[in-house]
Specification:
single chain; alpha+beta; elongated; binds nicotinamide-adenine-dinucleotide; binds zinc ion; zinc; DisA/LigA_HHH; DNA ligase (NAD+) activity; EC 6.5.1.2; DNAligase_N
């Protein structure tokens, strides 16, 4: 062909060849394709029709004449005694009726009928597994060598890696196998292994696999077999290559049955079919099942079943004439990103989702695809306006697998996680070291309503029995409840009506008189349980609100130190931070929660509904030691004013007002280094700094004023003791023991250390008991514990 193509078709053919070669290299050698299979297949088809129209184009170096690509991955080469070929493809066409739509299959079948002069021949019908073709060589029943297909003539020796694939027998089972037997099949990655790999990679911030095929090919072609062993690969056999010293059955389907006997996995979907109608029936049956299969398939394969017929049909350059791959609609497609939005899940997790120009993927119109999390968006660098490849396989949500940077329009911007929930406007927060961002508006966020209610009613929170998932679904779906406060307004009639609607929705049978009575009893019980929940404790209530980062133990700390809900609600972040085990993140979450107007309304409504706390008390006297001017200045974090300086200022000036009134010269007189004085002066000159400081000071004064003057006999006789519970106690539940110990001021810890005061051990106590013995920590039984509790509980 000339360098300067004389014709347009020549130029196009050159262009197609170049693109196909490049795609082959990326796909077969790098296991990292840039374009979808659909685009590749289209180019191949176009080149094929050009070569048919202009036979001069069909030179021996045309990609139409070659299989795959010669790999160069650092493995030894293996020459295949019998070439590993490709398959011709049949795609669905426009048209009426099956013979029109599947005319390529019809042509294939008719050609066999005519050539062999046979009506309705028998075919082996098989799923077309989407993985990597390999050939396994057995000598005297022992696995000797395994190779990839490569360019069909020469593949790579990946024996060491294949030995790590459990589905590949290292030794043949049964009997009757030939002395030399080459078994061919597909190495694949199951959906569950692919998903698990990617979930792990996403959490660790590592590169994800684009699809299971790349996962299988990339994993198998690792130079270190230990890496291959870690990626879970599977294998299915579907053909044989070289055979010496023995005979195979006369048909392909019987050969597959023999392979199964000898220990090879063969897909359970494999079968036989007669003539065109049989083939199409199989195609449709597997197509309907495709989403439910545990692995990717990109079509089905029809193979003339008897070997004599196969020999008579022979080969074209790169594929047999006796077989064809009937392809399904593609599982990957290209489309453009119109927007990137945030979806809030029922637990508040914020997932970025790409809104796409609608596109057909594997027979379904896809308009959204998940981007999983903010890190994944950053890793893929997906931007609005980008052309992307989306993938939909099995029942997994469609996902964006890659961006095509060459097609990126000008003036795009990297995407960032928004700061607020698109549903309720609350701040989106991220837990340290976690990939997921969450909406902090648990109580008011409509997206989280159901979860919020379930959490509120949970046994360890408000303990409302009977509020299960189905019930909560109905409550929320029918609009009876927006926030937990609404629960306390519901009447018997509301519950009965709601139940009727829920039953109707589920298609339950109409009510009988007896069922009516049962329903009424059920509603009465619920109302009673809701009523009973009004008398609760402050920690249970705080926990039930579902404030981010607030577990049961933080809720108890808040209650124990601040004493009342009113006080907790008013405390700014800075004051909360002086409480034990409450760091900046937790303090910000609590203060942020109570500052939010929507949350305030819900809490007010709950109180208005009559919720009372049996245990509200005064702020803890221990606050006296923790709250003073020095602490306030420490929290402000002023440059050059370290702990020594704040201590000095605290002791000297006592109150913020006095400190400010005194001014820099007095501070220096009092002993503050002049550099520190300069920084403090500059700090206090800015109203942005002073305002929060004054607020914190006011809160601090209020809190201290509420602390009882001289505390009477300690209400916490076990203060300072750390107890560990292990095993099952004869009468006390773990929760009860914990609650009672904590009520007396003890700390209940999860693990034994030298600081542990004593361990209470019950039945089947395990490693904690061993640890106690090892460290010489005292071990008690339940009787001793009960005696201790009895001694103190009456008194406090
Ligand atoms: N996206 C890209 O850039 C790119 C580039 C090159 C190739 N491709 C894709 O690769 C494929 C072409 O490669 P090909 O030559 O392997 O052809 P093919 O995938 O169409 O068919 C042959 C292969 O099918 C597999 N197969 C699965 N189940 C089988 C069964 N039951 N019996 C026999 N074989 C079975 C074998 O691995 C065999 O080698 C196309 O799907 C093409 O789209 C994509
Ligand atoms: Zn929200």
């Amino acid at each position: 062909m000339s360098q300067n193509p004389a014709h347009e078709w020549q130029a196009r053919a050159l262009e197609l060849r170049e693109k196909i070669e490049r795609a082959n290299y990326r796909y077969h050698v790098l296991d990292d394709p840039e374009i979808t299979d659909l685009e590749y297949d289209r180019m191949l088809r176009e080149l094929e029709s050009l070569e048919e129209a202009h036979p001069a184009l069909a030179t021996s170096d045309s990609p139409m004449r070659r299989v795959g690509a010669r790999a160069q991955g650092g493995f030894a080469e293996v020459r295949h005694a019998i070439p590993m070929l490709s398959l011709n493809n049949a795609f669905e066409q426009e048209g009426e009726g099956e013979r029109e739509r599947f005319r390529e299959v019809a042509d294939f079948e008719r050609r066999i009928e005519q050539t062999l002069d046979r009506r309705s021949p028998v075919f082996s019908v098989e799923p077309k597994l989407d993985g990597l073709a390999i050939s396994l060589r057995y000598e005297d029943g022992i696995f000797m060598q395994g190779a990839t297909r490569g360019d069909g003539e020469t593949g790579e020796d990946v024996t060491a890696n294949l030995r790590t694939v459990r589905a590949i027998p290292l030794r043949l089972r049964g009997e009757g196998w030939p002395r030399v037997l080459e078994v061919r099949g597909e190495v694949i990655m199951l959906h569950k292994d692919f998903e698990a790999f990617n979930a792990h990679a996403r959490a660790a911030g590592e590169k994800t696999l684009a699809n299971p095929r790349n996962g299988a090919a990339g994993s198998l072609r690792q130079l270190d077999p230990a890496i291959t062993a870690k990626r879970k690969l599977s294998f299915f056999a579907y053909a044989v290559g070289e055979v010496q010293g023995g005979d195979l059955p006369p048909t392909h389907s019987k050969t597959l049955a023999a392979l199964r006997e000898w220990g090879f996995p063969v897909s359970p979907e494999v079968g036989t079919a007669h003539g065109f109608d049989g083939l199409i029936k199989y195609y449709q049956r597997i197509g309907a099942k495709r989403d439910a299969l545990p692995y990717d398939i990109d079509g089905v394969v029809y193979k003339l079943d008897d070997y004599a017929g196969q020999r008579a049909m022979g080969f074209v350059s790169r594929a047999p004439r006796w077989a064809i791959a009937h392809k399904f609609p593609a599982q990957e497609q290209t489309t453009t990103v119109e927007a990137i939005e945030i979806q809030i899940g029922r637990t508040g997790a914020a997932t970025p989702v790409a809104r796409l120009a609608p596109v057909q993927v594997a027979g379904v119109t896809v308009t959204n695809a998940t981007l999983h999390n903010a890190d994944q968006v950053a890793r893929l660098d997906v931007r609005v306006g980008d052309t992307v490849i989306v993938r939909r396989a099995g029942d997994v949500i469609p996902e964006v697998v890659r961006v095509m940077p060459a097609l990126r329009p000008a003036h795009t911007h990297p995407w960032h996680m928004p700061s607020h929930c698109p549903v309720c406007g609350s701040a989106l927060l991220r837990e340290e070291g976690e990939a997921a961002w969450r909406c902090s508006g648990g109580l008011i966020c409509p997206a989280q309503r159901k979860e919020a209610l379930i959490h509120f009613a949970a046994r360890r929170a408000m303990d409302i029995e009977g509020i299960g998932e189905r019930f909560v679904d109905a409550l929320v779906d029918f609009g009876y409840v927006h926030t937990p406060a609404d629960l306390y307004r519901l009447t018997l009639e509301d519950f009965l009506e709601m139940k009727r609607r829920a039953d109707e929705r589920d298609g339950s049978t109409p009510e009988t008189v007896k069922q009516g009575k049962v329903a009424t009893k059920w509603a009465e019980n619920l109302i009673e349980a809701i009523e009973a929940s009004k008398r609760t404790t402050l920690p249970r209530f705080l926990f039930g609100l579902g404030i981010m980062h607030i577990g049961e133990s933080t809720a108890k700390t808040l209650a124990a130190w601040l004493g009342s809900l009113a006080m907790i609600r008013r405390m700014p972040e800075t004051i909360l931070r002086v409480l034990p085990d409450i760091g900046q993140e937790v303090a910000a979450s609590i203060a942020g929660f109570f500052a939010q107007e929507g949350n305030q309304k819900v809490v007010d409504a709950l109180l208005a509904a009559g919720i009372e706390f049996a245990d509200e008390t005064h702020p803890s006297p221990k606050l006296r030691g923790r709250l003073d001017l020095a602490v306030l200045l420490d929290m402000a974090g002023i440059n050059k004013v370290g702990p020594k300086s704040t201590k000095l200022l605290g002791e000297h000036f006592r109150t913020l007002d006095k400190l400010i009134a005194a001014g820099a010269s007095h501070w220096i007189v009092a002993g503050l280094p002049s550099a520190a004085a300069t920084h403090l002066e500059a700090f206090l000159a800015d109203d942005k700094n002073v305002q929060p400081l004054r607020e914190a000071d006011a809160a601090m004064q209020e809190l201290l004023a509420a602390v009882p003057a001289a505390s009477a006999a300690s209400s916490a006789p076990l203060e300072g003791q750390t107890v560990v519970l292990t095993g099952t106690l004869p009468t006390l539940s773990r929760d009860e023991a914990k609650e009672r110990l904590e009520a007396l001021g003890a700390k209940v810890a999860g693990s034994v250390s030298k600081k542990t005061s004593f361990v209470v051990a019950g039945e089947a106590a395990g490693s904690k008991l061993d640890k106690a013995h090892e460290l010489g920590v005292e071990v008690w039984d339940e009787a001793q514990l009960l005696a201790l509790l009895a001694r103190h509980e009456g008194a406090s």
